[in-house]
Amino acid sequence: VFPSLAQAQASVANEVYQELGQPSVFLFCPTEYCSSLCSPSPSQSCYLQTIGQELLPGIGIIWTGPKVVSQELSAVLLEEVEAVLRRSPVIWDNLYANDYDCRRVFLGPYMGRAPGLMSRLHGLLLNPNCELQANFIPIHTLGTWFRSELGSCAHPDRAGVEAVAALGDSQGAQDGSYSPQDALELALRDWVAEINQQALEPGR
């Protein structure tokens, strides 16, 4: 029926999206969901070109970055992806994912994401460690990063000073920029407080 996989996927996704009444959040994960899976590149991929052209504009498209687990996300790469998809991508961030190797647990701060990235995104999802308690620092530092991004977007001329400062000293860097080390220290402080609080609960 369809001349290509991309056209088949776009047709089915569009039909489901319309049948559901075009919900405000409807996400599509393409077969080529990172640069390393694209042939020969995102901008020259016939598959992604078709997806970008055929998929209805209200449908968000998931992207993981240069690789399935991307150490860095840059504005330059996102510009290329945005152009071929004809919309800002939804980043599905696998920075902390360990389902592919459960011997590893990732406890460092959220990092490797270029400043000002949020303005180029339709959304961001964080794929966490499989172990629940190991995600305190990842999620806490993601929150600090997100607040700094909101501050920068609200006050590009002041790098978000007022917006971030208004959130309180513990919520982000006071100059509006994100520091992974500062974010890690904030997360560790709050995590210790959380552990101590749990230790005082009856039955612990």
TrEMBL record:
Xref: SUPFAM superfamilies: (Trans)glycosidases
InterPro entries found in the cross-reference section: GH (IPR017853), Glycosyl_Hydrolase_84 (IPR051822), O-GlcNAcase_cat (IPR011496)
GO biological process, one term: glycoprotein metabolic process
GO MF annotations in UniProt: beta-N-acetylglucosaminidase activity
Gene3D superfamilies assigned to the protein according to its UniProt record, in alphabetical order: Glycosidases
Domain (GH84): residue spans on this chain: 1-150
PANTHER family per record: O-GLCNACASE (PTHR13170), PROTEIN O-GLCNACASE-LIKE (PTHR13170:SF23)
Protein name: OGA GlcNAcase
